[in-house]
Amino acid sequence: MSMTDVLSAEDIKKAVGAFAAADSFDHKKFFQMVGLKKKTPDEVKKVFHILDKDKSGFIEEDELGFILKGFSSDARDLSAKETKTLLAAGDKDGDGKIGVEEFSTLVAES
Hints:
single chain; 5% strand
């Protein structure tokens, strides 16, 4: 499954482009722009599983750094600061990674 099976390629392109500058990433705005906020809980979970590159059931800090690439292969990597901010926003139980329920909550709060 690819990201464009769930989200519009045009929305992905616009959202990734909006945060092309270093240290400009805002997960709330990004999730809204990419259309994730409007998706069903099952669709949000499908996106989570696409972003969970190692299929561990979690998006770890190193995977978060490449989250934009999960939406578009030519997107930039997040900076260390952006990655830490995103992890802090999503990691509700403090285990250093984001599970599927935490990801769903992160999207819902956007």
